[in-house]
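Schema walk-through. Below, the input block comes first and the output block second. Nothing else is stored per chain. Lengths vary across the set, and this one has 113 residues.
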Amino acid sequence: MTTTDRKFQKDLNAGLVGLVLLAVLEASDEDLYGYDIAKRLQGVRDGAPLFSEGALYPVLRSLAASGCLTSRIVPSYSGPPRRYYRITDEGRAVLAARRAAWHDTRDFIDAIV
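--- output ---
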C-alpha cells in the first residue's frame, strides 16, 4: 500500500470510528470497555481491524462528552481501572442518523465506482 493509499484509508476511517463504536455498543447487552470493543472489532476482520485500538479511546471520550455514551470506572485486579461505556438514547438517535448517512454515501459511491 502506498503512502497515498494509507492516507486515504486513514482519512476514511477517521469518519467511521464513531459510527462503528456506536453500533458495537448498541449491539451489546452489557457495558463494554475499550479493549473489549477492540477485541470485538478484531474478530470482524480476522485480526485486522481498520483502525488501531489507540484510535478508539479519543472517540469514546468524545462520544461520552457529547452525551451519546455514559461511562463508569470499575477497579481492575489485573491493572489500571477500566472505563466501561454504554450507549444512551441520544447515542441511538445519533447512530440512526449516521447509519442513514452511511447508507446514502455507500449507495452513491457504489453507483459510481
